Amino acid sequence: MGRGRAAVAGSGPDQRSGSVPCNFRRAAKWASVTRKAGFPDPHFHDLRHTGNTLAAGSGASLRDLMERMGHDSVRAAMIYQHSTAEADRKIADVMDSKIASVVPPRRVLTERDHR
């Protein structure tokens, strides 16, 4: 993680005091709160992963993801760049529109044209 982010994530020394912060799960009453919300015992990192995967799917660049997550390496940010059928469709649609903008439309042949 980048500097200053460890304290936010609850996994390193507090930047102000240098002391190790309290356990996030205990402080947030994580088990009780998530159980009441209908999500029995999810890991906090699962939420982080889901949020960053959604950000990547929305078109965030690797640099954007790295900044969001406090990562210093492209390799770490690449974890969230899952390929999906939806992403493949968007890519194909953009390519189609770019090609269509420079290639004149062709007349579609009908069965009558083949006689």
Strand content: under 5%
Question: Helix fraction?
Answer: 40-55%
The coarse overall form would be elongated
Order of helices and strands: HHHHHHH
Distance between the termini: 68 Å
Number of domains: 2
Count of β-strands? 0
Q: What is the mean pLDDT?
A: 76
What class do helices, strands and sheet pairing give? mainly alpha
Low-confidence runs of at least 5 consecutive residues = 1-20
Largest sheet: none
Q: Number of helical runs?
A: 7
- What's the gyration radius in Å? 23 Å
How would you describe this structure in keywords?
single chain, mainly alpha, 2 domains, elongated
Walk me through what this model shows.
This protein has 115 residues and is mainly α. It folds into 2 domains: 1-42, no CATH class; 43-103, no CATH class. It is 53% helix and 0% strand. It is built from 7 helices and no strands. It has helices at 5-9, 24-27, 30-36, 44-57, 62-69, 74-78, 85-102. The longest helix is centred in the C-terminal third of the chain and has 18 residues, at 85-102. The protein is elongated. It starts with a helix and ends in a 13-residue tail after the last helix. The relative contact order is 0.09. Residues 1-20 have low confidence and may be disordered. Pfam families: Phage_integrase. Residues 1-93 form the Tyr recombinase domain. Residues 1-21 are annotated as: Disordered. InterPro entries: DNA_brk_join_enz, Integrase-like_cat_sf, Integrase_catalytic. This is Tyrosine-type recombinase/integrase.
